[in-house]
Amino acid sequence: MASPFSPRGLGKGLLLIASLAALGFLAKHGHLADMLSEQWIDSEVRGKGWNGYLIFLAVGALTTALGFPRQVVAFLGGYAFGFIAGTGLAALAAVMGCVLAFFYARWLGRSLIQRRFPGRIRKVDGFLKLHPFSMAVVIRLLPVGSNAVTNLLAGVSSVRGLPFFAGSGVGYLPQTLVFSLAGSGVNFDPALRLTLAGVLFVVSSLIGVWLYRRHRHGDALEADLDAALGDAPAPPADTR
């Protein structure tokens, strides 16, 4: 791994900063956000066959990698392709965006960020490293945090890419289903469709919270068991 003070490390750091600035300018002035609209879907995606699929995937992957809400992509996927196909394409676009951001951070910013923010990276490693698949599922189910920031932090950590991507794909599905259903215009009463989408969103969020709490509780039990067996020092007695 290149030192951030070596010519190679300095070059990668400068490239990271320059590319972030360029991507920020592109997102602001390149009208990427304007593409995420029903009007753009009607003119460029719907009824275009395979070209429409590929354009949707490319724009969806790029915009989610840059931090645009994947829920909007899912809504437009349902609007453009219907509930089933829209869900699959939007989920695939989100995973592709995850892969782009992950390797962008890993190839350009890993050594620099690890040395500047070692404490934060250790926390990410501690949460993801041992069970990257299941913990990625939990993170994606929770209705908090930033998708793009999670991808970047995972990229500069030591987490393995493949299980992280697979877990992210599974964790993306519930909200993708919700927003694709909302955008699909399937033959439900609109109020019923939105109510069902809202219920699914709440249920998926509660599952994420339950899984997270179960994981943390499991860690505590494992630490207590290790202490009892002599594999780890027991905590000091409470003298209060």
Feature tags:
240 residues; mainly alpha; 79% helix; globular; disordered N terminus
Q: Can you summarize this structure?
A:
This protein has 240 residues and is mainly alpha-helical.
What does this structure look like?
The structure is a single chain. This protein has helices at about 5-30, 30-35, 40-45, 50-65, 70-80, 85-110, 110-115, 120-130, 130-140, 145-155, 160-185, 190-230. It is mainly alpha-helical and about 240 residues long. The chain has one domain (about 5-230). The longest helix has about 40 residues, at about 190-230. The termini are far apart. The model is unreliable at about 1-5 and about 215-240 (pLDDT under 50).
Alpha-beta content class: mainly alpha
Which stretches of 5+ consecutive residues score pLDDT under 50?
1-5, 217-240
Helix content: over 70%
Q: If helices are DSSP runs of H or I spanning 4 or more residues, what is the number of helices?
A: 12
Spell the H/E element sequence. Answer: HHHHHHHHHHHH
> Averaging pLDDT over every residue, what do you get?
74
Termini distance? 48 Å
How is the main sheet built?
Answer: none
